[in-house]
Write a structure and sequence with these properties.
Blueprint lengths: L29 E7 L6 H16 L8 E7 L4 H13 L4 E5 L1 H10 L5 E6 L18 E5 L5 H12 L5 E6 L8 H13 L3 E6 L6 H8 L5 E5 L3 H5 L1 H10 L4 E3 L2 H5 L4 E3 L6 H13 L17 E4 H6 L6 H6 L2 E3 L1
Length: 330
């Protein structure tokens, strides 16, 4: 059920570059590398990649004619990211689309000259990729996802939908997430105002997830914040299943969790970044420098509530949250 729809106007959008014919380039074939930190079997990511390709086509870049796209799928494996980053850089592409924070780190270690456009990256400043969003300089630009105050908002929303929660754990894998300290100031401030104990719950492998959630559920008042993390995204079905099994209310950073049965999600729409990234690459192929293109933050942050899950947990969703929700899953 759609409750709200937002229309966002983002700089560098297709509205600014309406004439696909301008991208028609005589001469040599242009090459784009794509390194993706998700599983190739993920249908959502396949859809995002399709939107990226489709936007390039609308801008006049035709695969097999004036464009070649080299795609590599690294999943959440740091070794594959490193291997594929070197492989793509050795191909000397005209630009690279970098998908996820750890993938971007791997690419930056391989090149400081090939233009890199980022998507699905948590925070490029705290990750050490750039010093300034408005004028990043160097060879990197693109579209980031989160800013520090989101941490406090996750805690606040979970407390509102599950008022019995008195302890919250932050689930993440240190090897694949943006540093958790990026969010801690806002989380600690919100925790203090709601008299909640918040603590980190790091996991290093898939088989640790159930143990962490089971331990958390061993005492009353448990809640879970599933942090922005490639590891959490790849293992979202398991995390959702364990939260349901142990009856732990959880909030997630991306709508696919709520779509898959998670209680509530609050975070940017990943999908909208891929057409925008195609527009940035189009501009780079036409001669603009990535360091002159601002790194953009999302304007639209959807709140998704899964009523089926709330009922299974015995939670009555407050009316004001239902009114705030962009979408309710029944």
């Amino acid at each position: 059920m759609k409750r709200r729809e937002f229309i966002s106007l983002i700089g560098g959008s297709a509205a600014v570059w309406p004439f696909a014919v301008r991208a028609q380039q005589p001469g040599r074939l242009r090459r784009i590398g794509v390194l993706i930190g998700f599983a190739e079997s993920d249908p959502a990511v396949q859809s995002w990649l399709g939107a990226f390709r489709g936007t390039l086509a609308k801008l006049g870049w035709t695969e097999g004619s004036n464009l070649r796209i080299e795609v590599r799928w690294a999943g959440d494996d740091p070794d594959r990211m490193k291997t594929f980053a070197k492989e793509l850089v050795d191909l000397r592409p005209d630009a690279i689309l970098s998908v996820t924070t750890p993938v971007t780190g791997a690419l930056i270690r391989e090149t400081q000259t090939i233009p890199i456009v980022i998507v699905t990256v948590a925070d490029p400043i705290s990750s050490g990729f750039v010093a300034n969003l408005g004028r990043p300089g160097g060879n990197l630009s693109g579209f980031a996802l989160y800013e520090p105050s989101m941490g406090g908002k996750w805690l606040e929303l979970l407390k509102q939908i599950a008022p019995g929660v008195t302890r919250m754990a932050l689930l993440f894998n240190p090897a694949t997430t943006v540093p958790v300290k990026f969010y801690m100031s806002s989380i600690e401030a919100a925790a203090s105002s709601f008299a909640i104990q918040a603590h980190t719950a790091p996991v290093h492998a898939k088989d640790e997830i159930e143990g962490v959630i089971a331990t958390l559920a061993g005492n009353p008042g448990a809640g879970l914040i599933v942090m922005p993390d490639l590891f959490n995204t790849v293992n979202r079905d398991l995390i959702i299943a364990m939260a349901a099994r142990y009856r732990v209310p959880a909030i997630y950073f991306f709508r696919s969790f709520a779509d898959s049965g998670g209680l509530i999600s609050y975070g940017p729409d990943f999908a909208e970044q891929y057409p925008q990234a195609a527009e940035y690459i189009d501009r780079i192929l036409k001669g603009e420098k990535p360091g002159d293109l601002p790194i953009q933050m999302p304007i639209k942050v959807p709140l998704i509530i899964n009523l089926k899950t709330s009922k299974a947990l015995g939670l009555d969703v407050p009316v004001h949250l239902l009114q705030l929700a962009h979408e309710i899953i029944e």
